[in-house]
User: What shape does this take?
Amino acid sequence: MKLNNIRKIFGYVLIITALALTKSILLNFLSMYATVQLNNAIPLWIIRLLLLISGLILIFDRLDLKKIVDFYKLTATIIFTLLALFLILNTICYAIQFSEQYLPYKHFILTKSEKSLLALYPSLNKKQVFDLLTETWSRPFEFDAYDHFREKSFKGKYLNVSENGFRLVKNQGPWPPSKNSFNIFIFGGSVVFNYSLPDDETIASCLQENLRKIFGDKICVYNFGRGYYFSSQERVLFEKLLVGGFVPNIALFLDGINEFYFRKDEPLLSEKLVRSLGDKTNLLFKSDAANVIKTFYQKFSTGCTNGPSIPLKNISNSEKEAFARMVINRYLSNKKIIESAANAFKVTPIFVWQPAPTYKYDLKYHVFARGGFGRHSFSTYGYEFADKIFRSNRGNNFLYLANLQANLKKPLYVDKTHYSRELSNLVAEEIAEFLEQKITINK
Assistant: This one.
C-alpha cells in the first residue's frame, strides 16, 4: 500500500474519531476519574477539534506548505483580532463597572469643597484628611473562611487593622484578650469599622475611653466592624471567635443600615465566588464584560440580585412592607441565634439599632446627600417599619438609637453613610450609658 493511501486512511480515522468521541465513549476505555481529569485539563471539544483538523490535513492529496502557512496566518490574525477586541471590551466594561461602584463615591469625597470637608475633621489639616481617606479607600479585602472576606491587615498613620481581624483602638488591649480584663467585642459593618475616621475617633475607641473613665483600664474594646457586613456575617464571625476560644464578656452588635442593603441573605462577594466555581471553560461568561452586560440586563428586567433595583417611587407600599418585614425577620432570627450562642458561653449579648442618614435626619445638613443614597435608600422605609417593630419589642439587651440625630441640625456624615467624629462619639456615649448597669466590675 502506498504511503499516500496510508496517510489518507489515518486521516479518515482521525476525522471519524473526532466526530464519534464523546464522554460516554471515553468511559469505555478510561476510568471516570481519568475522564473527568482529562476534561478539566483539556476540554473534550478542543481534543475533537484538533483531531478533526489533523484528519483534514492528512487526507489532502498534496501538502501545500504555502497554503498551510497562509491558512495559519489568516487563522492567527482572526484569533488575535478577536482576542484584542475581547480584551478592549473587557477593559471598557471593567472601567464602567468600577466607576459605577467606586469612583463616584471616592471622587465625591476627595473633590468636595475644602471648607465643607475639612469642617468635618476639626483636628486634621487638608493633607492629613487626604492621607486618611487614601488609607481608608485604598485597602483591598482579603479572604476569610465562612464570611468570604474581611478587612485586610494594615499598618498606617491613621488606620491600623490587626492580623487577628479587628481594627485597633486607642490604647488597644492585648490579643488574645486577658482574662483579667473586661472584654467587649463590637460587631458591625463599615459604620462600626468607621470608614474615613482615624483609629482614635471610632465608635469602639470612644466607647472604650468613656467606659474607662467609669471603670478604669480593665475595659478593653475590640472593633470587629467590617465593610459590607450585616447581621448574618456578624453571627458567623461571633461563632468563629467563640469556637476559637476568644470569649468576650460582652458581644455588642451595631446594625441597621446594611440590613436593608442586602435582599438576599448572602455576603457581598457571593456572585463572584459562584462564578469562580463554575465551568472553567466558560471564561467568556465570567468576564467583566459579561458581568456588566448581565448587570444591565437585571436592572431592566427582573431587578438586581441582592436588593430592589426599581426606584422607590415605583414600589408600592405593600411591596415596601414585604421587603422590610423579610429583612427584619432575618435580623431577629440572627439575634435569637446569637443570644443562644452567647448564653451557652456566658457572654452578655447587646444589640444596637444604629442611626441612618435616610431616617429622621435633616438632609439639608448632609454635605454628601446630593445624588441620593443608592441601595441604601431602601433603609428609608425599612427604618420606618423597624420603628413599629422595635417600639414594643426591644428587650433589656436592645438599644434603639435610630432617633439619635432627629434634632441635630448639623453635618454628621463624612460621606454618604459613615459617621463623623461627633456622631461616632454620640453613639459611643449612648452605648456607654446603656452598658454602665451591665458591667459587673468595681468602678
The chain is about 50% helix and 10% strand.
